Amino acid sequence: MNYFKKILRFAIPYRKYGFLNIFFNILYALFSALSFAALIPMLDVLFKPDQKVYAEPVYKGFSGLKDYLQEYINYRVTAYSGDDDMKGLVLVVGLVLVLFLFKNVFNYLAMFFITFLRNGVLKDIRNNMYKKIVDLPISFFSEKRKGDVIARITSDVLEIQHSFLSVLELIVREPLTILFTILIMFGISAKLTIFVFVFIPIAGMIISRIGKSLKKKSDRVQKEQGEFLSIVEETLGGLRVIKAFNSESRFYRTFKNSTERFFRFSNSLLNRQNLASPTGEFLGILVIGVLLWFGGKMVLVDKTLDASSFIAYMGLAYNILTPAKAISKASYGVKKGNAAAERVLEILETENPIKDVSDSLTKETFEESIYLNKISFKYEEDYVLKDFTLKVKKGQTVALVGQSGSGKSTIANLVTRFYDVNKGEILIDGVNIKNIKKKSLRGLMGLVTQDSILFNDSVKKNIGLGKENATDEEIIEAAKIANAHDFIMELPEGYNTNIGDSGNKLSGGQKQRLSIARAVLKNPPIMILDEATSALDTESERLVQDALEKMMRNRTSIVIAHRLSTIQSADCIVVLNKGEIMEQGTHDELMKSGKGYKKLVQMQNMG
Fold it and tell me: CB-based contacts of 358: which residues, under 8 Å, 6+ apart?
């Protein structure tokens, strides 16, 4: 129930729909019970035409309310029909029909209003999850598979709607239906009604035994769903590699094994769930059978109950079965929903370790320097950077070089605060970046990565990501600086051409130039280039390099370089090895020293 309460807080904005639902459910429950009680006068007209009431009955207090109501309806029927019994029958049938009509109208209205609450909660949970996914640090998703996150925001949230939120409909309606029905049943025969109470705890015990393992089984199903969605997501992302290495059958086997487990877990869960309905129904019929025997004895032998009241009583007893079954089903729903809610709330309640401090600053300008002061950082166990110190003055271009795994890209991740340092501090103009608002810090920086991350949208929208409400002229100007304007104009619809999923309709060089245009449009004082040309052919590299040089003019740049030919004009080249600085200086200085940098240049030239 703890998860249920947490999910329920999402219903607060829609509480007016909840109250309307409760109001109409109360009316539904009342009319549901009355519609069966109204059968008694109809049966009296049919089976006791000789017992007409010609004098208006006198009310003798609450204890005689049942007899008074019965006699009053008989009196009204007698007054209306006179000697024509069919007129009386039509009146009573009309009364029953009107009561059933009201019952169903109120049922519809109750369902109508709860729909807004259910779908509103569903929308808000999804919006909150998406907001949280975007807000959480990159490290969170290196532990979670993408498919699992997709499963949580789709099927798990739907499961909450089907289970938890359908329970909201039952919380008021079904218990009240049972309550009103039992009150009328007590009015007809207290002795007979005690029999119903014997049944309810026995049924409850049996049903709760079945339901205990549902949460565990449901959790397994949802985890497996996340698993095979991850496989689908990875397959679509790596389709070229899968085909190139003839690995289709291998991936198919992995997917087939996952769906096989999903098949087994789902069967186990649904079969356990399906046991609820027949069990509940049999227990219900069992009690009806006992009531028929016991009530029949009261009518035929003891003469303490008349036949029409007994028939109506049986209708009322059956009227309890449906809500009782719904309540038992709902208890399963809560158990199933618990597993889904746990997975959804795990994301919603994850604390973001990289957050703004209460008195964080908004920094609009960059004036002096970026200073990495004795920083150490590790992703898991081993430190990637150890006691690393570097100063980048305003207007300088600093290049970071070194073998793969030496910590170059980590520096870019730390300066942009995608991760926080374990030791030391990073200062911008003397202010620790932990004391600057994240949005403001990242507003000072432009990022061009090795993998051009583009979105399934138009060229214009992809470049425009760099600046909200950018004009067409600004977007074209940015594209020209990035040497992208000419190829964009050759596309079928120019700047309005859709570039496909991840920009797959473009070449590597074209994608990279769009990424540069995006960074140019943002026009930040600090540029971070993470191996921006390493994946390109020579022709594309020349165009991209030219675009980068145009962009880096009058800016402070941190360039993570793989191809050393691209950074010879840098103000300072820092050579890294296993997270530590081996040497630093200009290209000429480092070539003269003849250490690590010269060896790297010679290796690349030989290649």
Answer: none
Pairing of strands 383-393, 369-378: antiparallel
Domain shared by 294 and 214, yes or no: yes
First to last CA, the chain: 65
299 within domain boundaries:
yes
Task: For residues 194 and 532, give the distance between their C-alpha atoms in angstroms, rounded to a whole number.
Answer: 80
Task: Identify the band that residue 127 occupies on the pLDDT scale cut at 50, 70 and 90.
Answer: very high
Q: Which tokens is 28 given?
A: 């539904």
* Strands, sheet with 431-432, edge to edge from the N-terminal-most edge strand: 383-393, 369-378, 423-428, 431-432
Q: In sequence order, which ranges of 298-384 are alpha helices (DSSP H)?
A: 307-348
Question: Looking up tokens 């507003």, which residue turns up?
Answer: 443
Please indicate, yes or no, whether residues 139 and 279 belong to a single structural domain of this protein. Answer: yes
pLDDT of 492-551, one tens digit each?
A: 888 888 888 777 788 877 888 888 888 888 888 888 888 766 555 666 667 767 777 777
Asked if residue 252 and residue 389 are part of one domain, the reply reads: no
Order of all β-strands in the sheet with 397-402: 445-448, 526-530, 556-560, 397-402, 572-577, 580-585
pLDDT tens readout for residues 569-593: 788 888 888 778 888 888 888 888 7
User: How far, in Å, are 372, 530, 542, 545 from residue 411 at the CA level?
Assistant: 9, 10, 26, 22
Q: How many helices (H) and strands (E) does the chain have?
A: 23, 10
Q: DSSP letter at 361?
A: B
* Gyration radius of the chain's alpha carbons: 37
**What pLDDT is recorded for position 104?**
92
Cα-Cα-Cα-Cα dihedral sign, residues 90, 91, 95, 96: negative
Q: Are 27 and 101 in contact (CB under 8 A)?
A: no
81 SS3 class: helix
Residue 544 lies in a domain: no
448: β partners: 529
Q: Note down the domain range covering 271.
A: 2-18+104-348
**H helix intervals, 189-211:** 190-211
Q: Is 587 helix (H, G, I), strand (E, B) or coil?
A: helix
Q: Answer yes or no: do 371 and 299 share one domain.
A: no
